[in-house]
Amino acid sequence: MSYFEAILLGIIQGLTEFLPVSSSGHLELAKAIFGDDALPLESLTFTVVLHFATALSTMVIFRKEIFQILKGLFQFKWNEELQFSLKIILSMIPAVIIGVLFEKEMEIFFSGQILLVGFMLIITALLLLFADKAKQTDKHVSYLNAIIIGVSQAIAILPGISRSGATISTSVLLGVDRTKAARFSFLMVVPLIFGKVAKDILSGEISFESANIGQMSVGFITAFISGLFACNWMISLVKRSKLSYFSIYCFVIGAIAITYALLK
């Protein structure tokens, strides 16, 4: 992988992590175009590094909200911040279960499964289309909503299913206010990513010995910077109900990926 490819992959991750078009799916498509011949574990390592960068950009964008949540938690009262944190924890459970029980099986999905990515992008397109037609409300995320949204996040581990697209669409279809849905969607993934990175580093499952640290660093920086831009942009788009545009995009890219995989 060249530095140019690392920069491009970082930009793709930064933009597509927040835009509902599947960051993991686009990374797999880009690596296939570049002729990436990395082992599944090495390819997954680079993907995790880029996701870590966008998790940091999320923390920067929502720094005030995160500070208020932490401040409320240390008051040790049944307040809004504690309840929000409990909902975040509930939303994490499905993805944690999948990650723990099927971690090895999931690695194969990050090794050039272009046909799978294509079909999952079509599913993402349908989700976004349905969500765009949903009525706007002012409801908050309930505890039951948090669990259902968490199931969507777990399914979105598959490359091609947009995590933000699946969680925001699920929230909106459940009647949650669009702005609150976007906020919850972006914040709920931060603990998961940090936990995943910490676990893999401590267990030695992510190894940087055979990877190019310089290229990963460049990819990390570009993913972080582009993530800052995309996060703010996505919040404004969700408010204006513009998800149908991304639905069309996902359908087109999904169709191209399926055609490419079948003809290759």
Notes on the protein architecture:
- With 264 residues, this protein is an all-alpha fold.
- It has one domain.
- 78% of the residues lie in helices and 0% in strands.
- The chain contains twelve helices and no strands.
- Helix 2 (23-33) runs antiparallel to helix 7 and helix 10 packs antiparallel against helix 11 (213-239).
- The longest helix is centred in the last third of the chain and has 27 residues, at 213-239.
- The radius of gyration is 18 Å and the shape is globular.
- The relative contact order is 0.21.
- The model has no long low-confidence stretch (mean pLDDT 81).
Output the radius of gyration.
Answer: 18 Å
Q: Using DSSP, what is the number of strands?
A: 0
The largest sheet is: none
Q: Structural class of the secondary structure composition? A: mainly alpha
Give the integer mean of the pLDDT values: 81
Query: What spatial form do the alpha-carbon principal axes imply?
Result: globular
Our count of domains comes out at 1
Concise account of the structure shown:
Helix content is 78%, strand content 0%.
Characteristics:
12 helices, 264 residues, mainly alpha, 78% helix, globular
Please give the structural blueprint:
Elements: H1 3-18, H2 23-33, H3 40-61, H4 63-73, H5 80-101, H6 103-107, H7 114-133, H8 143-155, H9 163-173, H10 178-203, H11 213-239, H12 243-263
